[in-house]
């Protein structure tokens, strides 16, 4: 009798867990039923060299605290994952608000002058404006990706468009169809985008030549940084207090976070 009761309770709990898992899975659209969408694990060590991982954890302690609130608020406003947005910013500028490149992009989100103007931003070096502008621009790219592209690939397409331009992404999707690749799946597009630098392909496309390998690397590194973010316990706050001048500064909880980050640095091979 006792064994039967125990077995019943175990079966009941198992059934509840299965029901919870089933309900947490979104009902796939017709497109995804033809080919299940599988997101492969991100091989962080292969994507990010040891030095890059070490510097990420260092900047997580020293730079990120003053900007976390902006990333969280901007991501919430534009319906984006805040760690993804912060990871993108790290790939762009290493959270350096004064960052600039020889091509003229500047600020934490490395906005071009033209993009900043379209977003109503005059000072690209203002970290808050840059973060909100970058989030708005990324959300805009995501909205313009065809609805046939499912999540999470839709977000990867948007990141790639942020980097290489929406026009070149449209070219890559057209080329994918020509060579019998799936234009709605990011994994296929990682093989197609690099072809935009080859004359036999880009001369037949509307927007011409592009360094198509760059958005592939760009998205890959952003995803790897997000994995590192996710390794840090959520119960620890990275930041968030203001000093007397109203500026963001690291909170005392950083003292409790530091040993964990040091351990992650060692485990990541940094």
UniProtKB/TrEMBL annotation:
It holds the Pfam family SLT. InterPro entries: Lysozyme-like_dom_sf, Transglycosylase_SLT_dom_1. CDD domains: MLTF-like. SUPFAM superfamilies: Lysozyme-like (SSF53955). Residues 71-181 form the Transglycosylase SLT domain. It comes from the Bacteria. Belongs to the transglycosylase Slt family. This is Transglycosylase SLT domain-containing protein.
